[in-house]
Write a structure and sequence with these properties.
This protein is mainly alpha-helical and about 130 residues long. The protein has 4 helices and no strands. α1 (about 10-45) packs antiparallel against α2 (about 55-85). Bound molecules: zinc ion (ZN).
């Protein structure tokens, strides 16, 4: 919080502000959806007696998958938002370079610049291959 090294233009700041707002909207949408989802689950729990156990089981699995994806999205959104507060949003996790603003607008949750992402994809592909073989 000491001497601000603000060499980022006001143009870029306003662009980042738009990205931050879209993240906040995304977050509230997920939270709202999960609220509706809980209501739905309560409703289906009441009808469970009449539902075949297999069908119920399948539905539970689907619900868990949806929930996990939302959970992951929320985690990533929170991570990005905390970077906004610390002023490090937009920096590549691997090389500390600023991520291209166009990339951030398309993928606001990106934590790697394009070249680090490509490196990362190569290594994660080979990791997946080694697990599969
Ligand atoms: Zn990088």
């Amino acid at each position: 919080m000491n001497s601000a090294e603000s060499n980022s233009s006001t143009f870029q700041n306003s662009e980042l502000e738009i990205i931050k707002k879209s993240l906040l909207i995304q977050k509230s949408e997920i939270l709202n959806k999960n609220q509706e989802f809980k209501n739905l689950q309560n409703a289906s729990a009441k009808a469970a007696d009449e539902v075949d156990a297999v069908v119920q089981n399948l539905q539970d699995n689907l619900n868990i998958q949806l929930h996990e994806r939302d959970h992951l999205s929320l985690m990533l959104i929170d991570k990005a938002l905390s970077k906004f507060s610390s002023g490090s949003y937009g920096q590549c996790d691997a090389c500390d370079e600023m991520i291209d603003l166009r990339r951030l607008k398309a993928r606001p949750l990106a934590t790697l610049c394009i070249s680090c992402m490509e490196d990362n994809e190569k290594s994660s592909k080979s990791a997946t291959r080694s697990i599969l073989q």
